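Board notes, transcribed. Complex of a protein with heme C.
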Amino acid sequence: MPPYRRHRWLTLLPLVLAACGGPFPQSALHPESDYARSLDALFHGIFWWAVLVFVLVESLLLFILLRYRQRAGAATPKPTHGHTVLEIAWTLAPALILVFIAVPTMRTIFATQQPPAFNALRIEVIGHQWWWEYRYPAAGIVTANELHVPVGRPVDLEISTADVIHSFWAPGLGGKRDLIPGHVNRITFTAESIGTFTGQCAEFCGESHANMRLRVAVESDSAFRAWLAGQGGLGRLAAKGSVEEKGRDAFRRYGCIACHTVTGVSAGVIGPNLTHVGSRTTIAAGVLPNTAEALARWIGDPPGVKPGARMPKLPMAPADLTALVAYLQSLK
Ligand code: HEC
Ligand SMILES: [Cu+2]
């Protein structure tokens, strides 16, 4: 075989190294909350112990392989049977390693399971196939898919599900938490820097599991208050005779009201609350940007965009679709 053929596998190297590039929007190695930092510290602690064990074991292995390899003319080595000291040693060593892993792990589990601080902002997170509902009970606000939290203040997420098991996972801000039917789980964390963090459902939950994404906007206190104030009350009212008003009529006529709430217009609870849908940056759990084209595409054929979507494809006159899109965009 020519030498270059023998090293063909090297052509795969760039592919492997490409994985070291970036950016990594969903890396758990860039912690931006107290919770995420404690997980990161635990991971790094255990990682370096594992490196130490690896180096020790592999060096010993290599040493023995080389030192006792077969040599021409060498006598057959004498087999050993039963060595009490050795056996006690190799039982104790792994037990000790497990202690080194277990103690910090337990400490982290208890630290991250503390009850929420008295001033924590309580938010209910409810999983649906395949989108996220967020409720801010103190403010009386319901929204979807894009969670907003203030920086530097403890947040208490009360996590439950309307249907099957899901898992809430925003790696930059904290660990995964399963959404279990009939049970409330919680995550409490304090976000440490302003920015948008992405995440997703981390427990297979059906056809569009991979399309069940989420975003967390960590905002300054004033930006958060402004957002909260904007989410309250009625959606913007459509002017008489406007295309938005035609859209609102279509919203009733096509039965969108059966599944969606727009405060003051409808009270459906099957799909996301749309009272302020125009203020979101994405729709359909992060699958599409919140633009006129994307809204039209979504309303035109939801299961075509998102397999299995629990929103039906409704045959619709093009003028109605345009009016609906204008109406939804006006709901800021
Ligand atoms: C049978 C119930 C049902 C009906 C009827 C329905 N929807 Fe939906 N809608 C849903 C569900 C469920 C979702 C969430 C889908 C997902 O993301 O997986 C949704 C999502 C949406 C979204 C995206 C919201 C967001 O925040 O991501 C918009 C916009 C929307 N629907 C508009 C409409 C309009 C307009 C109509 C009427 C033409 C309508 N829907 C009719 C159930 C319904
Ligand atoms: Cu899922």
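The longest strand covers residues 121-128. Residues 130-131, 144-145, 208, 251, 254-256, 258-260, 270-272, 274, 277, 280, 283-285, 295, 299, 306, 309-312, 314, 324, 328 surround heme C (ligand 1) (CB under 6 Å).
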